[in-house]
Amino acid sequence: MDRARFAEFLRTRREALQPEDAGLPRGQRRRTRGLRREEVAVLSDMSIDYYTRLEQPRGPHPSEQMLSALARGLRLSLEERGHLFQLAGYATPRRSADSGHVNPGMLRIFDGLRDAAAQVVSPLGETLLQTRLSVALIGDESVHTGLARSLHHRWFTEPATRLIHPEQDRAEQSRVIVADLLGSYTRDGPGSRAGAIVDALLAASPEFAELWHEHPVPGPYCAAKRFVHPQVGVLELNCQRLIDPDQSQQLVVYTATPGSSSHARLELLSVLGPVTDSWAAQS
Q1: Cβ(85)–Cβ(101) below 8 Å
Q2: Which domains does the chain have, with CATH numbers?
Q3: Vertex 72, ends 243 and 85: CA angle to 5°?
Q4: pTM more than 0.90
Q5: Closest alpha carbon to 102 in 79, 74, 72
Q6: What is the pLDDT of residues 52-61, one digit of tens each?
Q7: For a Cys-Cys bond, which of 152, 193, 224, 226 suits 125, CB 3.0-4.6 Å?
Q8: For residue 235, with 0-12 CB atoms within 10 Å meaning exposed, 13-18 middle and 19 or more buried, which class applies?
């Protein structure tokens, strides 16, 4: 690891990043060029002391997970992310749609939606980022690991996953999920992560296998959905989806028609916030 150049790279990228780029207020007394160290630490989900030691440089050798967090916090491009990994002594991460790296442009849009029910997901249904209201609506999807990171996998292997939608809507949701997964499998091939999920589901779920062999084709790109929430009841929400052309990641935003009962319930959720005990009780 080239600690001196690694620290210098962190500092230059921190100083080049403006508060507005990360969805932070500038304030009237800001004297620091770019972001403060503590702001980068918060954006990267690490302690201020840990980040400060990396930039001095006297910190520990960061793990690949920490490097990914730094790349996200500093809004690095794929090329900059690869350079960061090389400076830390790692091979450049594979550039693929399932890398988990969120494009800086997508992050800037996401930062402007902090009060909305928004999330960034991969084509395999893996949630990469969620707003507070998204967590309140559908639960914290960052807790899953392995194949279970994919909603497509959980839908057919964990029955509690389906409780978020009314029973009469679940058959159509199953078909939509299989169609989405089929699209990823066709694009990426059997040796991809999509292929691993398909193989696992063919072995584990007769329902999935039956739908898979029907070759379903996606219908409306992001149709309206109904959600069943343990605290506020049923919400009928519209879905808007923005596709990132570089990595095929999707920014998904759920909204309610103004003046509707669902709009009032979504506003109530924004006040209540994430309540994990209620989700645990429902599951």
Answers
A1: no
A2: 3-87 (1.10.260.40), 104-282 (3.30.450.180)
A3: 115
A4: no
A5: 72
A6: 999 888 778 8
A7: 152
A8: buried
